[in-house]
Amino acid sequence: MTHFLLTCVELTETQRSYLQTTFSINQVVPIEMFDRADSGKVTIIYGWSDTLPSLTHFSSLKWIQTLSAGVNYLPLEELAKRNIIVTTTSGIHGHQMTESVLGMLFSYTRNIRESILKQEKREWGVANKGTDLVDKRVLIFGTGNIAKQLAKTLQVFGCDVFGINRSGRQVEHFTQTFNYQDGQSKLSTMDIVINLMPGTTETYHYFNDCLFSNMKKGVIFINMGRGTSVNTSDLISHIKTEKIAFAALDVFEEEPLPKDSELWGLKNVLITPHISGATDKYNDRAFTILTDNLMRFMKHEVLKNVVDLDLGY
Amino acid sequence: MTHFLLTCVELTETQRSYLQTTFSINQVVPIEMFDRADSGKVTIIYGWSDTLPSLTHFSSLKWIQTLSAGVNYLPLEELAKRNIIVTTTSGIHGHQMTESVLGMLFSYTRNIRESILKQEKREWGVANKGTDLVDKRVLIFGTGNIAKQLAKTLQVFGCDVFGINRSGRQVEHFTQTFNYQDGQSKLSTMDIVINLMPGTTETYHYFNDCLFSNMKKGVIFINMGRGTSVNTSDLISHIKTEKIAFAALDVFEEEPLPKDSELWGLKNVLITPHISGATDKYNDRAFTILTDNLMRFMKHEVLKNVVDLDLGY
């Protein structure tokens, strides 16, 4: 069988020729050079782009190797209907996302954010002594690869780390994990709550008024999962009452966050523009997933990081 | 022998009565209630204050348990002449200072500082993908308690951590340590340089034009030790040429940093107001050092964290 790989990811010349020689891929075409008339020949798509022709034109497509961990931007139903395999880059986000969570935490607990804002006014001094992570109780929603690496790292800092997943099954690096129901009853004892859940219909607006109400007064809330998991207006209410002492948000219901969103101006909110998964090493790490999966694909073996298209992750 | 403890550190009522009953200290007097006429009775000072009477009035003083790791603010020569013991709280700074170093690092490498500044203008997006700490080469000047904990933690993030001390003796948690001389030749291979040296005559302006010139183009420089270790105008020059891509400074030659210091306005500089050692748990942790040392003091045993008054640390 001949293969045509359409890549929406920038490849180096070395990477491109490696793909062609090692995997006998006849054509490796970058999206900028792609002729839509060739859509019917494409068997593999690497990455994804909103500018691609509609899926119906990709009549020979067998597999999409995405560049992300979450896939809620893909036409999952149609892909399922056509039995197209979707794989993610799950496993390469742990380092940078763990560092982003910690950077956001420390920006607050170590008074770095306050210092940055005061530096703009040449002002010396901060309002309080700050704190450190020793003995802090952390609850992470999600217990996948990223959550596991984060949990393991938080334990190095002396945190007691709990997790939440669908079944409540125990997962390494967590002191204890709960299912969605049991987890809610633990919320009030947690100093830090971190969302890493995928964006699915099940998690839509999961963080709502009720959930925020059950949190401890003065909690730190971090959203690194998907913006759709949070009811934004409920979140804003609980930030305003200072129930949530500090919210660090990397993902939003609408991205880019609209200019007129109230979130921008709240003093206890840190906004980052959906960057926690990014790193200058990303494409190199993703390429090792692609080549590993190509090896399996050519041998008709089961691929790594296959998405369950019904569950959406 | 009767004891009179003058405390410049706020104690809880429980802590105060614990000192009196457990150690048979006749008087535990907070500085706000202290009658200068009693200076001659004071045998122990806990903490330090610029408002204390001159040392000559403390004719019975045996021991100062400071609240800090560095002691360059004390009249060390006079203390040495009078054989007054000085002990530090060395060992209780590791957690919070490690977190501050990481917070400063991540504020840059994870684009958090840029996001904070853009949030003020409701601007979405950052200039580049950022990076992560995996495989970064870090050189720490100083290999004491704080440096060891920092080195151990940086290794968790995949850094290769090197240290510098006077003798070049090997220290746990460092891949390798060098003496001052050998260390300089390694500078050009380091991505991140962190100063944790004490402020002594030996370290005065140690970081000067020559040392900065030997660093790698694009280095990250963090000063958490003492401001006097750095020649500020040399530092500013190398920030302006972008030899130093990012400088995070918690200590300065003059503190508070003067309003007209050029450092405030440099775009690649993060200034925090000498807060990296602070935490809401500080006084509780220091109190355990005080009581541990009181136990030894009463039994005429050697105290912990005794300062070599000639070396100054």
Q: What characteristic shape of chain A results from the CA principal axes?
A: elongated
* CATH architecture verdict of the largest domain in chain A: 3-Layer(aba) Sandwich
Name the biggest interface: A-B, 54 and 54 residues
Number of structurally distinct domains of chain A:
2
Largest sheet entry of chain A: 7 strands, parallel
**Which superfamily, in CATH terms, is the homologous superfamily of the largest domain in chain A?**
NAD(P)-binding Rossmann-like Domain
Number of strands of chain A: 12
Spans of chain A of at least 5 consecutive residues whose pLDDT stays below 50 are none
Helix content of chain A: 25-40%
Strand fraction of chain A = 15-25%
What's the oligomerization state?
Answer: homodimer
Distance between the first and last residues' Cα of chain A: 29 Å
> Class of the largest domain in chain A, according to the CATH hierarchy?
Alpha Beta
**Which strand order do you get reading across the main beta sheet of chain A?**
8-7-6-9-10-11-12
Q: How many H/I helical runs of chain A?
A: 9
CATH topology grouping of the largest domain in chain A = Rossmann fold
- Report the radius of gyration of chain A as a whole number of Å: 22 Å
